[in-house]
Write a structure and sequence with these properties.
The chain is mainly beta and about 650 residues long. It contains 6 helices and 36 strands.
Length: about 650
């Protein structure tokens, strides 16, 4: 499909209007400055996705939902939550920070696990996607942007007096079956009584899978989570979360282009978090503690010895918010992290990190907001990095003008530092480098948002952003013969290896156009649309060919739409991507120059939309495509099911 026709289709949807009463196009957000601000006052380009969209759109997992958010590129290795790399603004998959209720999720072992977000969809209040540099608040990895998942319990506003809290009960879920042995289930509940809010849920995606070159592309991906929030007093609140995530999937050619690769992988994760918070008048204080444990077992083929790695992430976060004057807010905090790995492939390693940060939100004259921030990251045996940033916003009438500039960093993960270090003999493949420096970059952007609200039932927001990121010391694997390897202890003299090096100086320039529309066409007709177009150009100053640094889309447009008329609804997700071509003749695999995919879902509901039956087709046009060379994604996949949503 030509880009011209796709753009015409999007514009025609906008002309039709969309679902106005169920969405705010200028929502309150917390990700850009840690204090609650309207998106139009942050100086940043922020997309907000409501958790309830998971039931309404043709998606199966959280990475599926993110795939169609304007400006987000998902490089999927497998379907329905098996594994995906998240890319923002042309960065690498390690240059996006994922956060759950304020605490970082990025795995110490590898960035390939960052899309494993340990929360059931029913528990999600919203997802805030902050595009662009954010290391001044969040430290390492927040280069291309931040994905912040906020749960219903941690977002709940509970008063200390029980009679001031409304009673709420919501139970929702769904079951679907389809081709290739598909069976999916999603169920969750949220209950609020007096001073207590409790939520929990379970998501399970399973299939015997599509036949691949060596094996079937099976998957069994399950997530269960439970959380509660309790108002101890009018000023004190306690929130607790626990989750378990288990994924078992075919991983053929996820990481190599070798014909002998018929891999399978199992990833088990537990996540625990506790928050104690205090708020009175202009003072707010919170202390968060979190622990993440991941057990990864990767079997290259039935004749190999499985790689077994267990990574742990301990972290603490303390934040003070103080209102100085009516227009001035001070935010100060400190973040501690301990990263640990025990692996038969990478060895045993521990890294401690401590980072204080401070930010000021200053409103000037009612329309102008300036937010300077700075963070200092100390990393054991690595050194210290200081990351400053400033955000500017001018909001008047229906317009916001914004700009931002700041430094970002990304530290190497344990795979980049120690891959293949603990094996007895390595005959080839990727090899880590413990001497890697942090990636550094300076980013700046300028943009504008136009808010057009004709009435309470009609809203339109158009955003445009120009950005540039100047990066140095970027990390990637470089083909290196045995004679040039810095460490040869367990390497075969006849092997050729991919050595992790700080190789590249890359300048990335881009432009984003985001469109959100929400209107009621009539009393029983509603349409909601999110769409985005992103143009990117990365100039690699080094002469060394790099895979990850050149894998992002040159042009990306993605969208989602929901149309309701009476009891009938249709929802669509789609994307068009243009990127560099690649091929691997040994496994007869290729990356095409471009592709377009569309997912569609039709539903008929009963009992005031509390119960519905639906039919869904993923990859409706049966397009053959891959995001990662060798990892072929499924063709058309038809399924059907029922969903329910009871609220009291």
């Amino acid at each position: 499909m030509k880009v011209h026709y796709l753009g015409t289709a999007l514009l025609s949807l906008i002309a039709g209007g969309a679902l106005g009463q169920e969405i705010s196009l200028d929502p309150v957000t917390v990700t850009s400055s840690l204090v609650e601000k309207r998106a139009s006052q942050t100086g940043r380009n922020i997309a907000v996705i409501k958790g309830e969209y998971f039931q309404q759109l043709p998606v199966h997992s959280i990475d599926d939902l993110l795939r169609y958010v304007p400006g987000v590129e998902i490089q999927a290795r497998g379907p329905q939550g098996s594994q995906s790399d998240i890319v923002l603004r042309g960065g690498t998959f390690q240059q996006v920070l994922v956060i759950l209720d304020g605490l970082r999720l990025n795995d110490p072992n590898t960035g390939h696990f960052n899309s494993y977000i340990p929360i059931s969809p029913a528990e999600i209040d919203r997802i805030e996607v902050l595009k662009g540099a954010s290391s001044a608040l969040y430290g390492s990895d927040a280069v291309g942007g931040v994905i912040h998942v906020i749960s219903r319990t941690f977002a709940a506003r509970l008063a200390g007096n029980a009679e001031d809290n409304p009673k709420k009960t919501q139970v929702n879920g769904g079951i679907s079956t389809g081709e290739y042995g598909l069976f999916n289930a999603n169920i969750g509940a949220f209950v609020q009584r007096n001073r207590l809010a409790v939520s929990g849920g379970f998501l399970s995606n399973n299939a015997s899978g599509v036949r691949q070159r060596g094996i079937k592309g099976y998957f069994h991906n399950n997530t269960a989570s439970l959380s509660l929030s309790y108002a101890i007093s009018p000023n004190w609140n306690l929130a607790v979360r626990s989750a378990y995530d288990h994924r078992d999937f075919a991983a053929q050619n996820f990481y190599t282009v070798l014909k002998s690769d018929t891999a399978s992988e199992k990833v088990k994760m537990s996540w625990n978090q506790v928050r104690l918070s205090y708020q009175k008048n202009k003072t707010a204080f919170s202390i968060d503690g979190g622990f993440k444990s991941v057990q990864d077992t990767y079997l290259f083929n039935p004749h190999s010895i499985a790689n077994s790695s267990k990574s742990r992430l301990w972290q603490g976060l303390a934040i003070l918010q103080q209102g100085i004057t009516q227009g001035t807010n001070l935010i100060a905090g400190v973040n501690f992290q301990q990263r640990n790995i025990e692996s038969n492939d990478r060895g045993n390693h521990t890294l401690n990190q401590l980072a204080p940060f401070v930010s000021v939100v200053q409103n000037i004259g009612g329309h102008f907001t300036v937010t300077p921030s700075v963070r200092m990251d100390w990393r054991e045996n690595i050194g210290t990095e200081v990351s400053p940033q400033i955000n500017l916003s001018y909001k008047k009438s229906g317009w916001q003008l914004r700009a931002s500039a700041g430094k970002t960093i990304r530290d190497a993960d344990f795979t980049e530092r120690f891959n293949n270090y603990a094996k007895t003999l390595v005959t080839g493949g990727s090899v880590g480098n413990p001497d890697l420096k942090a990636e550094r970059s300076f980013s700046y952007e300028a943009g504008a948002d136009w808010f057009l609200t004709g009435n309470a039932n009609s809203q339109l927001k158009v955003s445009g952003t120009f950005f540039q990121r100047r990066q140095k010391d970027l990390i990637d694997y470089v083909t290196t013969p045995y004679a040039q390897m810095p460490r040869k202890e367990n390497l075969s003299p006849t092997g050729t290896f991919g050595l992790a090096l700080n190789i590249a100086e890359v300048n990335t320039t881009g432009f984003e156009l985001d469109i959100q529309s929400a209107s009621a066409i009539s009393d029983n007709q509603k349409l909601l649309l999110n769409a985005g177009l992103t143009w990117l150009d990365s100039d690699n100053k080094s002469n060394i060919q790099s895979f990850y640094l050149s894998s992002h889309a040159r042009f990306l447009t993605n969208f989602s739409a929901i149309y309701q008329i009476g009891a009938f609804s249709v929802s669509l997700n789609g994307l068009y991507k243009k990127r560099a071509e690649r091929e691997a003749s040994a496994i007869e695999a290729s990356i095409s120059k471009n592709y377009f995919i569309l997912n569609a879902r039709a539903e008929y509901s009963f009992l005031k939309r509390q119960l519905g039956v639906f039919i869904q087709a993923d990859n409706t046009f049966d397009r053959e495509y891959s995001d990662i060379l060798g990892s072929v994604m499924p063709g058309r996949w038809v399924m059907g099911g029922v969903r329910f949503n009871f609220t009291k």
